[in-house]
Amino acid sequence: MWKTKTPGIPDELFERDENVPITKEEVRVVQIAKGRLKPGMIVYDIGCGSGSMSVEAALQVEDSGHVHAVDYDQKAVELTKKNLAKFGISNVSVISKNANEVISGLPDADAIFVGGTGKDTTEIVKMCLDKLNPEGRIVIGMIQILKSVDITQVTISKSRKTSTGTMMLARNPVTILSATKN
Amino acid sequence: MWKTKTPGIPDELFERDENVPITKEEVRVVQIAKGRLKPGMIVYDIGCGSGSMSVEAALQVEDSGHVHAVDYDQKAVELTKKNLAKFGISNVSVISKNANEVISGLPDADAIFVGGTGKDTTEIVKMCLDKLNPEGRIVIGMIQILKSVDITQVTISKSRKTSTGTMMLARNPVTILSATKN
């Protein structure tokens, strides 16, 4: 359970699996913020991985909203379900399929998060845009840059204690692309 | 007015003054998230600058909470008041004084944001810690690293259109220090 209004659940509170990626706390809050979520919204989390984005989005859209989490990796789906249970979340549906087989059957969305770097990203983004309501938001993380919109590159370094003090440990840059539907 | 539940108001929606710094959108959402805000909380915004942090914090703590914004620069105070009016915020008090003259008289805080790089930062942080409730959060932006806690360095690059395409423009790294009071 996480009771703050602000997003930003510490990474270490999530169940983890070394084979399933997690969207790190600071990148996650920037992505969630770019989604501009409100209670009642319909959200997709495409490539939900560990489910950390789904958990945060579900808390922001509240029980009047719903999150559709999709991942083709059965391990990710199981981990997402574990994390939903851990945080007491009941407004997320988890779908274990390729995104391009699923998206057309989902209800229209107010915000869509696309993670991962699968080879069908361009097709998936196109399908997502078809389902996105006017003024809806799409937020695409960790991909090659597509074309001009609002692009933010975040490079995070985190402190780690060493025997003699504190050092900064670099993480890889993440490119976050966000746009509003016309 | 800004109606999303998530923080992250675009920079361009704020009134600006070239002599008053603004905490940029992506850094702002990470700082707000590190504050772990809830409705009803008492928050300080020390060195409020343009007031962008105060506006976001006020929306997160809602009308049952309150933000005390402090800046020694009269221009910053006026700009903060303008932005509070622009976003229809009524739960922020703006104080035009040096922070070290003000803090001891404020009610105890649940979350404290310290911006700016004034020469009295260490003294101000110490005064803030005295006022911080147990489990309260302090988030310190844009300063030299003090000592081990949770330190995140965020380096942001933003897209800018050029005549031939889109380029990434670097911004200076920001060090965000956050900690929970014992």
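qc> Chain B has a mean pLDDT of 87.
qc> done
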